[in-house]
Amino acid sequence: MNDKTVTVEVGLGDRAYDILIGPGLIARAGETLSARLPGTRVAIVTDENVAAHHLETLRDGLERGGVAVAAVVTLPAGEKTKSFSHLQDVVDAILAAKLERRDAVVALGGGVIGDLAGFASGIVRRGMDFVQVPTSLLAQVDSSVGGKTGINSARGKNLIGVFHQPKLVLADSGVLDTLPIREFRAGYAELAKYGLIDRPHFFAWLEKNWQDVFAGGDARIEAIAEACRAKADVVARDEFETGDRALLNLGHTFGHALEAATAYDSERLVHGEGVAIGMALAHRFSARLNLASPDDAARVETHLRAVGLPWRLADIPGDLPGAEKLFDYITQDKKVSRGALTFILTRGIGQSFIAKDVPASEVLAFLKEALAG
Amino acid sequence: MNDKTVTVEVGLGDRAYDILIGPGLIARAGETLSARLPGTRVAIVTDENVAAHHLETLRDGLERGGVAVAAVVTLPAGEKTKSFSHLQDVVDAILAAKLERRDAVVALGGGVIGDLAGFASGIVRRGMDFVQVPTSLLAQVDSSVGGKTGINSARGKNLIGVFHQPKLVLADSGVLDTLPIREFRAGYAELAKYGLIDRPHFFAWLEKNWQDVFAGGDARIEAIAEACRAKADVVARDEFETGDRALLNLGHTFGHALEAATAYDSERLVHGEGVAIGMALAHRFSARLNLASPDDAARVETHLRAVGLPWRLADIPGDLPGAEKLFDYITQDKKVSRGALTFILTRGIGQSFIAKDVPASEVLAFLKEALAG
């Protein structure tokens, strides 16, 4: 096994923390935590699927390194777990284990577990230590950076939560070998996003090296590290999302609308796939508005197709609603102010920007074209 | 009506905010909010008792000043309201009213409502604006400064919450005229606490002027302002309670134990009364340990007695448990490390300090003496 570990520092002043990326980090978690958070006791929060693969490795790794595991909470897998009722279960388990503010909640899993366990750690005793052990590519490049935590409300996703930065992230690149290929690809869409936002060289590198990233090894570690660096840069500029951080939503406005239009049916579309199509649409829409060259839109589409991701509406199995209905899903997500919307658009590969006055009529016309194929 | 308004700034950098103290602030809330938080819409959270006295004044005052009231949540009065289930109700009402991050939750009530509404405002959309309108003396001098919010768990009080600073506090000194005298006195105990922590001149001033504070008018406003300044100083030094902020717990270790020993029966003892007795005991205990002069302990006891507050164990109606049991209640609240406890003790009036190595045996011996009268 390759023992290379790359460290990315998220520079947030007194909330700064490190992301360690490399193989075997879960098995070595105990020595790492003992060195960085001496004396900590932990509660592990995970889901049933992830527990089957990695819980014993983590627990043994922690205990071997002298870290006491005071509680393990294993929840059902899936988005529905991000609820008030599961939050209350996790909070209660942490309190029952008598963990203090300088003890840690360890999230072992994907975005759902990270969001839920992070939120719980942010509210027990008004904030205790939090360690992320993301086990999906999506969580390693996205949810593990930035401190957003939360649960869903019947009124929308992620409407309830806090900003709570972890003390440490262990992104074990080895665990990604056990991911289904479709889930790995979905995470890859968010990884490519960072190239498209403001790192054109990274996107070009991915165009050349994506097969190595999929295969594992150093290229995968480097790609995850670069995505984490990119996100950390944006978050350091705008921790509480009052400005630039909105760039991270590239592809997400169209993507969320498509997730809603397919009733969050993961057989048809998972989040990362929605983002892939959303990024392709954002580039094509930017070209239609004469902001970017159609060649750049074509480059994005070609790359997504090459890695096996969906990139156009026709790639979604089953029927989609009409343009007006898709537009309604878009405006559910955001305010329409005097007939104009805010979108993340682009002037080319790696030149995304926040466009605040996109005419609703242009969005609608573009959706009609896109549906017509 | 006297229109004097005193402003105390809580200096927390980009989370700094003002506390306005004076009569008639609720009726003028609309113009104040319009000027300081332009364009804000609000959800009011209150309890049934407070609503009967002040809700219409606040609602009219807001709407007259051009602030839209998008929702009103009226909860049962009492500590039991600080629960997960009421938190969820408040969060849902805020989301149903489609409030955004720059809209505000307005807490109209005492500490329970402030803690619950503040917590809700801290987690909806990962933090929205929050305005406190404290209607008890205790809430005006204590809960309204410092950003602690939260709810209770079956495992203890205030174990779940966040630090979330308000944007503005309107401490309407006029509403205190409608408080039952016992509740006013209980708040006065926390007010006097700030003199005992580190403001000996303020304590001396209260000894001379307490009757004017009880009567209302400028002395009351000045006393509230000075207590808020004192607390703001401590909080600015230690926002997240990693050090000096523990000084605010003067009187609270004994006080909490007494509240628990009387089963939180408010007929026998309310929080501020527990703090009054706790402060007297902390001074007497410090004298017993030869840290402070017995004359200072006597001064504290004399003043509490003068204003009508309980100051010794014998002032609590009904039977108390024995010294061992009281000691157990104390250690439920805090860790006993190698036979020693952390207490807030004092070297004299206004000279409190954090004592980290108080022998358990001394605490127990002192409790036996105090119970013997």
TrEMBL record, chains A, B:
NAD(+) binds at residues 111-115, 135-136, 148, 157. Zn(2+) binds at residues 190, 252, 271. It is found in: Cytoplasm. GO terms for biological process: amino acid biosynthetic process; aromatic amino acid family biosynthetic process; chorismate biosynthetic process. Its EC number is 4.2.3.4. InterPro entries: Dehydroquinate_synthase, DHQ_synth_AroB, DHQ_synth_fam, DHQS/DOIS_N, DHQS_C. SUPFAM superfamilies: Dehydroquinate synthase-like. One of its GO terms (molecular function) is metal ion binding. It catalyses: 7-phospho-2-dehydro-3-deoxy-D-arabino-heptonate = 3-dehydroquinate + phosphate. Its cofactor is Zn(2+); NAD(+); Co(2+). Binds 1 divalent metal cation per subunit. Can use either Co(2+) or Zn(2+). Residues 187-336 form the 3-dehydroquinate synthase C-terminal domain. The keyword Transport does not apply. Pathway: Metabolic intermediate biosynthesis; chorismate biosynthesis; chorismate from D-erythrose 4-phosphate and phosphoenolpyruvate: step 2/7. Catalyzes the conversion of 3-deoxy-D-arabino-heptulosonate 7-phosphate (DAHP) to dehydroquinate (DHQ). Belongs to the sugar phosphate cyclases superfamily. Dehydroquinate synthase family. This is 3-dehydroquinate synthase. It comes from Mesorhizobium hungaricum. The lineage of its organism: Bacteria, Pseudomonadati, Pseudomonadota, Alphaproteobacteria, Hyphomicrobiales. The gene is aroB.
